[in-house]
Design goal:
The complex is a heterodimer of chains A (306) and B (262). Chain A has 306 residues and is α/β, with parallel strands linked by helices. Helix content of chain A is 35%, strand content 29%. In chain A, strand 9 and strand 10 form a beta hairpin. By secondary structure, chain B is an all-alpha fold. In chain B, helix 4 packs antiparallel against helix 8. The two termini of chain B are 26 Å apart. The chains are: A alpha/beta (306), B mainly alpha (262). The interface between A and B is medium-sized, with 32 and 33 residues.
Chain lengths: 306, 262
């Protein structure tokens, strides 16, 4: 598949401080790429470099195979973006704000503006001034500005900030639909990892300005740890299982066991049988997979302790 | 496709002024100022009324006479000051609002080249400020006509031309404030600089250095028609043009080259 976006050894330094260091990544057509990191990890700096708002100290960015350093670069009309908290001209209505961006993008069609207003449920607010919008609707307006011209690539920095749970689901579905139906490539940064994990096809974790790891969903499944969680009626269950040779057992409370033992994870029915035979009730037994949030924290902690 | 029409960039800037309170308030100020001057001139012209009202009698001394010439001389001075502050506010607002409204980043990765956006901003700022000064001139002419002021042939026309020249020069010399709005990401820094320029301008004029200070040159150039001693000379004109070009070129370069975090 063709690379829509590629960065090669991207570095940005501010005096002695390195905001982004040797960052190389590639995003292919139709991918939804999650760019994860703590606050200050270098996400927004990277996004601003990708959009030509900040010049890298070294390294290069290629969009559709063409370098941003190339003076003849002319692909901005193929991109849509929303960086950090979206802004809008507070004295103008939702429609007027969109009309201004349309002018600057050379878009003549009014239909595109009307479509996006309906698609993002901004219709009831179309004549409301942007300064009077709620945080969630201001975020929708920011998204509308990013997608109304039907770009081939979308770059979104924290797109679900300020949205209510229904809005988050709506935006997630919208982005998925754009990727699946229209083949839009999406590069999305976020620190809401539960949200990202439901959306992306691949992700990278940036920490201290460096891209630490890049994985797709399948690779993540292999790397994330699993535990067997068991609730019993008797606190002596812990001793019993240890005496049977099971290791790596922790307790959330005396009646709830968290087992990391390989054998137990492969054969949870064996644990149930041992406990029941000993006369202890098994109230709940479940294999739990580490979620992206825990994986992220574990990865970051490991880097910090290196 | 990076060749969106320049006229579209100008139209976009024009659209941003819609429903803007700043437009109404600035226009009100530029109508109010000449009306105040006309009222004071009227008091000076009718001393019996000025005496009876008491509090205005001192202020009317600012007119060299109470006809068109005196009125215009006062208007030129007041217009230079108000024009400077008004145009300074306008250009600070047009550039600085992109930061205060958090919309700057929306203007940087577009098919419209940045120089087109910056130059569109300059055009709209200059047009807005010029329009305010032309409104002021219109109010001056109408008030003078109502007050039935007298003048020699051609004087009203000549003075109007001087006012227009002063207006054009005053408006354009605010260009460097656009760099300040861009570098300091807001309205306050350029506005403060504008007020400082006005104060320094008064000082340097007092000590005879006015022709070398870019922000006093417009008023001096207008007055030079009346008093050749006010002529700023070649050096003054060079200083003026260099400052203007540096303001426009510097702002365009800043938008094109600097890192934009705001």
């Amino acid at each position: 598949m063709k690379n829509i976006l590629q960065t090669i050894n991207l570095t940005k330094k501010y005096g002695p401080y390195t905001a982004v260091e040797n960052l190389s990544l590639a995003v292919q057509q139709g991918e939804i790429y999650g760019f994860l990191g703590l606050n200050g990890a270098g996400k927004t700096t990277t996004i601003r470099i990708l959009l030509g708002m900040i010049k890298p100290t070294s390294g290069d960015v290629f969009w559709f195979g063409k370098s941003l350093r190339d003076k003849t670069f002319a692909s901005w009309d193929r991109l849509g973006f929303m960086v950090e908290t979206p802004g809008a001209y507070s004295n103008l209505t939702v429609i007027e704000n969109l009309e201004i961006v349309a002018k600057l993008r050379g878009v003549r069609s009014k239909t595109l503006i009307n479509d996006v207003v309906v698609r993002l449920r901004l219709d009831p607010y179309r004549n409301k001034k942007a300064g009077q919008l709620s945080l969630g609707n201001a975020q929708r307006l920011g998204l509308a500005k990013a997608i109304f011209h039907r770009p081939e690539v979308l770059i979104l920095d924290e797109p679900t900030n300020g949205l209510d749970p229904a809005g988050i689901i709506e935006v997630r579905n919208l982005l998925k639909e754009m990727a699946e139906n229209d083949g839009v490539t999406i590069f999305v940064s976020s620190h809401i990892l539960g949200e990202i994990s439901r959306l992306v096809t691949r992700f990278g974790i940036i920490h201290k300005g460096r891209l630490q790891i890049e994985l797709n969903a399948g690779q993540l499944a292999k790397l994330t740890s699993k535990v067997l969680r068991v609730s019993t009626s008797d606190a002596r269950a812990l001793q019993l299982l240890r005496s049977q040779g099971f290791e790596g057992i922790a307790t959330a409370d005396p009646l709830e066991l968290i087992i990391e033992d390989e054998k137990a994870l492969k054969h949870p029915e064996m644990i149930a049988r041992i406990l029941v035979n000993a006369g202890y009730d098994v109230k709940h037994l479940m294999i739990e997979r580490e979620d992206l949030e825990h994986f992220f924290v574990r990865t970051i902690n490991a880097i910090d302790h290196e | 496709m990076n060749n969106i029409r320049w006229s579209d960039a100008i139209a976009a800037e024009w659209m941003k002024l819609k429903h803007l309170h700043a437009v109404t308030w600035s226009a009100t100020l530029f109508v109010f100022m000449p009306l105040m001057l006309a009222f004071m001139l009227y008091l000076g012209k009718t001393p019996e009324m000025a005496t009876s009202s008491g509090m205005f009698s001192m202020k009317t001394g600012m007119f060299v006479d109470y006809e068109w010439n005196g009125f215009f001389m006062a208007v030129l001075q007041a217009g230079a000051g108000l024009g400077m502050v008004g145009s300074g506010f306008v250009i600070s607002f047009v550039f600085g609002r992109e930061y205060s409204e958090n919309t700057m980043k929306d203007l940087l990765a577009l098919p419209t080249q940045r120089w087109k956006i910056v130059s569109a901003k300059f055009i709209i700022s200059f047009m807005w400020s010029l329009l305010l000064l032309m409104v002021m001139l219109l109010v001056v002419l109408v008030s003078g006509w109502i007050l039935d002021l007298q003048a020699e042939d051609q004087l009203v026309w000549d003075m109007s031309m001087k006012f227009m020249l002063m207006s054009l020069m005053t408006v354009m010399i605010t260009a460097p404030f656009a760099i300040l709005a861009s570098v300091f990401k807001g309205i306050m820094a350029p506005l403060a600089a504008c007020i400082i320029a006005l104060i320094v301008g008064n000082l340097v004029t007092t000590i005879g250095m006015g022709p070398f200070f870019p922000w006093t040159i417009p008023a001096l150039s207008a007055l030079a028609f009346e008093d050749p001693g006010m002529n700023v000379g070649i050096i003054g004109n060079v200083i003026y043009i260099c400052t203007l070009v540096a303001g426009i070129w510097g702002t365009i370069k800043y938008w094109q080259v600097a890192d934009h975090h705001g």
